[in-house]
Amino acid sequence: MKTNELREAYLKFFESKNCVRRPSDVLVPQDDPTVLFTPAGMNQFKNQFLGIGQLDFTRATTCQKCLRTGDIGNVGVTAYHHTFFEMLGNFSFGDYFKREAIHWAWEFLTDSNWLGLKPERLTVTVYLDDEEAAGIWHNEIGLPLDRITREDERENFWPAEAPSKGPDGVCGPCSEIYYHPPGGGKEVEIWNLVFTQFNRVGDPPDNLRPLPKKNIDTGMGLERTAAVLQGVESNYEIDILRPLCENVGEILETSYQFDGKTGRAIRRITDHARACTFAIHEGVSPGSKEESYIIRLLLRRAFLEGYLLGQKQPFVYQVVPAIVDMMSQPYPELKQTLANVQDTIRAEEENFLGTIERGLGKFEKLVEVAKSSNRKSLPGKEVFDLHQTDGFILDLTFSLAADQGLSIDMEGFRAAETKHKTDSGKGISWGVMAAGPLDELQKSQGETKFLAYEGVTSEAVVVG
Ligand code: ATP
Ligand code: MG
Ligand code: MG
Ligand code: MG
Predict the structure, then answer these.
(1) Which of 42, 132, 269, 285 has the most crowded Cβ, counting Cβ within 10 A?
(2) Which residue segment(s) compose the domain that 256 sits in?
């Protein structure tokens, strides 16, 4: 099944369950102070889940454009993470609940009229004490107990804090569905069913009050499920992404192979170019704050990957026509901004080109010195200098350092930043990097934000 067919099949299936098909919300929400980019399908329905505002329907289904900055470190590394991806969802606002959500997910996945996956390839997780969900999976769906795993709040509660500790507000357990590929490859999480059934108020005991109207919020990864259906080993091999990787390979005058030595770099370039195409289409330009900073980071990282493979001229902008072409069936509007998106990307590449050689030289020297003296981190003062004068913005250096197994001395970085602020009499702003659930961050916590590069969250800092 082609990816475009899967998207349509999902929406049709849930329409047959009386869910109203709604369009994707924007990728860059303007009136939501809590996120830079839409991280999940439920984002556009947050108010309804909180009981604020009424829609004229109680069941919905969407295919949502998402961007998760917290997954930047996973891109190209795992087979199943992107920054930009599409999430298929079905939602109930005080209407159907756990039983229907589980039965319908199973029907869509396994019924031969729909995806027809073999039941024995699927396992599920449930929250520790969610007997109701475990009971439905076991007694009604017929899943053997050894294919139902209990997970704690890190995996199976939303928001991902222990029910006794998390923030006030709606919350609940979830149940994730995993596919196990034939041949013993690593299983992949394809669908998360979230049962928002409590209002959490104050401290335990008795702080989880059952909601009078319980909600359903589910998210299925479009690219992951397409990879399962197409029998390929990575999301990047599916029909809408493999041709883009090949296109990047051609532009770089190398051939793309999943396991080839340029495979990871090409997947990163492909992912980042796709994310930037969608964000710039919505009006974000690369810059030093918030969404703009993330787009700058993604573009510089993509350009650097190609630069390291010998492409010394702007090239990321050349990938845009193929991206627009691949994504044009669901998002024909991308065609209208193609030229502008290309110009914006090209200008940013040219901008970075001016300092990249010098910055790379400095960065490589720092790595060499750190490794030869057995240090695990790069000195903050020099990293700040790279940030300030060479276009190697902090998170870019973070991600390059992480590839080398190194972190950054953030104390030194902060000291250098404070000194610079004092010397120049002005503040510095950069945006937000967020790991995992921290995608939902306060946008307006002051002019300078914090960094939390995946894998180095212990180094996460509030800058400024
Ligand atoms: P993972 O544990 O693999 O990072 P997740 O638990 O963070 O996934 P959810 O927040 O539950 O993901 O999102 C719902 C679904 O969206 C996932 O089951 C998966 O299919 C898909 N998904 C999540 N993150 C990504 C991503 N970065 N790229 C592609 N698909 C994703
Ligand atoms: Mg998960
Ligand atoms: Mg999940
Ligand atoms: Mg994740």
Answers:
(1) 269
(2) 241-373
